[in-house]
From TrEMBL:
Stored InterPro entries: Asp/hSer_DH_NAD-bd (IPR005106), Asp_DH (IPR002811), NAD(P)-bd_dom_sf (IPR036291)
The protein's name in its UniProt record: Aspartate dehydrogenase domain-containing protein
Residue intervals of the Aspartate/homoserine dehydrogenase NAD-binding domain: 35-149
Domain Aspartate dehydrogenase: 223-312
One GO-annotated biological process of the protein: NAD+ biosynthetic process
GO molecular function annotations of the record: aspartate dehydrogenase [NAD(P)+] activity; NADP binding
Family to which the UniProt record says this protein belongs: Belongs to the L-aspartate dehydrogenase family.
PANTHER family: ASPARTATE DEHYDROGENASE DOMAIN-CONTAINING PROTEIN, L-ASPARTATE DEHYDROGENASE-RELATED
A Pfam family this chain is assigned to: Asp_DH_C
């Protein structure tokens, strides 16, 4: 995949595709949100609550919110979640009505579930640029190949780079095909996972040892749940390995999901989500050494948290980058890290 997919010949194509799209009445970024879990609530409040210190409504406006359970977007449930109300006119009941109900959307913030790209990925990207909150979806070859054809000027896939330090540098090396090895290890407290089988059963066997006073002292301090290609872990831990998926996307065609190595560890000694990444370049003729970078990200969390503390402001900061640079008005398309 050429993640900087951008070609002037496509401008004519995209213009013909968007001829019927109304001209925006303002330069505010029109934001749609898919999903009203913790991150969706975090973003929605900062678009609506004028009293909030992180209010971003001066440069962006909430166009719509969709949630699988629409009742959470109204009344007491909504007030409890975000301390303000979502205008009735901004509630999208049926995702199939998105284009007719909200014809102008600049960026759709997807924080729902990876399956949204299987069922609605093409219509989302045809309608708007998409800020990806579930990058594990792209471990599905068919989905990724299908959506790559739609990342033309004006329709980008934005990936948050917050947890992936050096994302743009990995992206550059991936584009230049100078990467030789990419590996990522993610460590989390044992109760911070939300897994699919067979990993869930393996994790339960480990946590049972930790939770039982009779076996706790003999239990290992950590347990490796997975060690292999990132493509294999994404469907087994779709809520826990988003950073792995982002790294696989950034590493480009030569490595990608199949040759990017992912290691997932349940560690009873930590109260944080810890990400270690090692990048190695290809051999340099005439030299025995190679380019290498190692990074560690330590993100504090409560023992049962799936999403750690720094994730929320980091995700918001990436959205603000899209808005502040006016990227939504001049997007060249492609896969971009923000």
């Amino acid at each position: 995949m050429n993640v900087n997919f951008c070609c002037s010949s496509f401008r004519t194509v995209v213009n013909s595709l968007r001829m019927d799209r109304p001209i925006p009445s303002s330069t505010k970024c029109k934001v749609g949100i898919l999903g009203f879990g913790l991150i969706g609530q975090y973003i929605a409040r900062r678009l609506l609550d004028t009293a909030h210190p992180q209010f971003i409504g001066d440069t962006a406006e909430l166009t719509f919110v969709w949630n699988r359970t629409a009742s959470k977007l109204r009344g007491p449930a909504c007030l409890e979640a975000i301390d303000c109300e979502i205008p009735e006119s901004s509630i999208l009941e049926d995702l199939d009505n998105m284009e007719t109900q909200f014809p102008i959307v600049d960026v759709i913030v997807e924080v729902a579930h990876p399956n949204i790209y299987v069922t609605h990925g093409e219509r989302l990207l045809r309608h708007s640029s998409v800020y990806v909150g579930s990058p594990t979806a792209f471990a599905n070859r068919e989905v990724f190949e299908r959506l790559k054809t739609l990342v033309i000027p004006g329709h980008a896939l934005y990936f948050p780079s917050g947890a992936l330090w050096g994302a743009t540098d990995v992206l550059k090396m991936g584009n230049m095909k100078t990467l030789a090895q990419v590996s990522i290890t993610m460590r989390k407290p044992p109760h911070s996972f939300r897994l699919e089988e067979p990993l869930q059963s393996a994790l339960k066997a480990y946590t049972d040892l930790l939770d039982n006073p009779e076996t706790r002292d003999d239990a290992p301090s950590s347990f490796t749940l997975y060690d292999g290609p990132v493509r294999g872990i994404c469907p087994l831990a779709p809520n826990n390995v988003n950073t792995m998926a982002c790294l696989a996307v950034a590493s480009g065609e030569e490595l990608g999901f199949d040759l990017c190595r992912g290691i997932l560890v349940a560690d009873a000694t930590v109260a944080a989500h810890i990400i270690d990444i090692t990048i190695k370049g290809k051999p340099i003729p005439g030299r025995d050494d190679v380019f290498e970078v190692t990074t560690r990200r330590f993100n504090p969390c409560d023992p049962n948290q799936v999403t750690a503390t720094a994730t929320y402001p980091s995700f918001l900061a990436s959205l603000k980058n899209i808005i502040a640079k006016g990227e939504f008005l001049k997007s060249e398309g492609g896969v971009q890290f923000v």
